[in-house]
Every structure is written in C-alpha cells, then in structure tokens.
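Narrative of activities, Objective 1.

The group set out to show that a structural description can be obtained from nothing but a protein's sequence at a throughput compatible with the screening campaign. Below is one input-output pair from the validation batch, recorded exactly as produced.
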Amino acid sequence: MRISVAAPLAVAAAGVLAGSLLTAAPASAAPHQGGLHLGKIQYDSPGKDTRSNTSLNAEYVDIHNNGKKKLQLKGLKLKDNTGYTYTFGSYTLAAGKTVRVHTGKGKNSGAHVYWNRGSYVWNNTGDKARMYKPTGKLLDSCSWSKSGSGVKSCH
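Output recorded for this entry:
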C-alpha cells in the first residue's frame, strides 16, 4: 500500500490559505450589524465662517442607531482631535433613527441636539470625530482631510 504525501500537504496548504484570507480583511471593512455609528459629518459649514449661530449650527455630526432596539445615549461622548467633547445627557435614540449634534446653540428636540458652543469644533483642513461609550471605550471614529464639499459620509 502506497500513501500519497501530496494530498495531506494540499489540504494543509488550503487551510492556511483560507485562514489568511479570513484575517486579511480589516475590521473596518465589515458593515455595521447593529448599534451606533457616526454617519454624515458637515465639518465645514456652507458659506463664509462667520461664527454666527446659524453658521455654527450648519456644522454637525449625525449619529445613527442601526440596531433593532432603542438606545439610551446618556454619557456617550463625541470628541474631536483637540479634545472638545460633547457629552449626551439623557437621550433615547430609536432603532433606525439618527440624531444630529449641532455645534451652535439651540433647544434640544427630537432628532437635534446642540453643543451650545460659540466657536467651531471640526477642523476644515482635517480632523477626526470619535464616539466613546460612557465607559470610555471607543465605539466609532471617522477622519477626513479637506475636500471641496466640507462633508464626510462616514458609513
């Protein structure tokens, strides 16, 4: 009886190849299966940067609940590269809904909350938005460099 060495080697090689293909794709390439993520970011408000409340509120970050359950955002933090931080108070985001965090002043309602700042947060020439759980664990991030539109679609 003759035993072939080629067959076991081929099976082992196929296993190594399959394993390397599974680990080659970066985690960020996977679509969101559920939960919170950063969506559209208007980092350069349209028009001239006048620091008016209208201009400040045209700078915003959308946070989307892609899950199947409503989520309580209390303690969730949104930060930029310099450390400016918006912390959510008690706020429930329904499944499939989006909340827009405006830089300027306003009254929180429905799908809009306000940072109540008198100056811009997001750098027009490049920045990174980070969203942290109340525990401090990074939940999502999105970075950009200057583009013609001043808008970044993160997911």
